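Journal club prep, notes for RB
We'll compare a predicted complex against what the paper describes. Inputs for the flavin mononucleotide case:
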Amino acid sequence: MPEAPFPLAEAPVNEAVRALLARASVPPRQLHDPAPDAAALSLAVAAAARAPDHGWLRPWRFVGIQGEDRAKFGDLLAQAMQARAPDTPEARLELERLKPLRSPLLVAAGAAIRAHPKIPAWEQEATAAAGIMNFINALDAMGFGCCWLSSPALQDLSIKAALGFAETDRLLGWIYVGTPEAERPRPERPAPQGFWRDWQPA
Ligand SMILES: Cc1cc2nc3c(=O)[nH]c(=O)nc-3n(C[C@H](O)[C@H](O)[C@H](O)COP(=O)(O)O)c2cc1C
């Protein structure tokens, strides 16, 4: 039987889908001032809160770190790294200390996890992660750039506490945010056909 054509290939592309298809990460050091203002961030968080959310548990949590607070947070990251691994060379600690300074806004993004008889933690994390992607897509569509990074500090209890997350919550990523160069790279993606197939009943 000939393969069915990929269902999206011929679809007309509206503005919203065009924005989704153009999104690409921007490395933190290529993100400059200005950071999104409160109005833009509010729109992005509102987009996050459009993610599917089983039981309406509202797990999305975003903590913004800007201006001089980035250096203070960098100090905490370095202290936490040293506490986790006391033999860490000073040069590596310094790299950790400087991380938040790479872009004008660093967002700690996570999930507030509640004990629930029917909705396990993974579903709440999935809702929060989907929200993070909406947050990033919204900022990207508004002309900002983002980069979602991880690091061992996401699991560090002292860092979670400093950011106001409970031990049972989940920190899901560091989102570096700022304004990219106008001519930012948007690398090609693999063809969508590779990620889709119609189920063939046995
Ligand atoms: C949960 C999560 C954690 C990530 N952590 C890292 C990371 O620590 N380092 C890294 O280089 N990319 C990381 N990435 C991937 C980048 O965000 C980005 O997707 C990658 O650089 C490719 O760029 P693209 O988004 O334009 O495809 C992470 C992505 C996700 C979703």
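Talking point for the session: Residues 24-25, 147-150, 173 surround flavin mononucleotide (CB under 6 Å).
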